[in-house]
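Example record

The entry below shows one chain as it appears in the dataset: sequence first, then structure tokens.
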Amino acid sequence: MDNREIIVGVSGYDFDAAHYTEHSTRKCLNLHGHTYRVNVRVKGWINPGTGMVLDFLELKRVVKSVIDDYDHKLIVPRKDLGKLRLEGPFNTELKVLDYPYATTEYIALSIAREIYDRLRLPVMVELYEGSRNHVVVYYPPERWSRVEQ
């Protein structure tokens, strides 16, 4: 029996959302949107009863469920909730982050934490903001070795 941890993943999930980025260019402080692409990996041991770390169908279901909560929303940090004033002939659905900023880094960390909370397996999230910019988050970081990162 092999006792190594195995990494399994799914790729190519996407969602559209808006945010604003403080401490960046004036341009990025404006509300603006992106198409985000998400790739996810989880790490665990093979279950001898199933021969799998995790059924791909379950991983896909969890990833889709998490990112659906971000899709077509305005992503804001909790600290800014009392400062928002949105009105108009449109929906004002928000995705609130429990992080100080709605940067791509914190959005990826939030997604990773939500997937981890559901699966209880270490998670790596690769989040693309558009086609050229991306971040990689390992959650929880202590469960990933330097070699794997």
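Notes for this example: The chain has one domain: 6-142. Strands lie at 6-19, 32-44, 73-77, 94-97, 123-129, 133-139.
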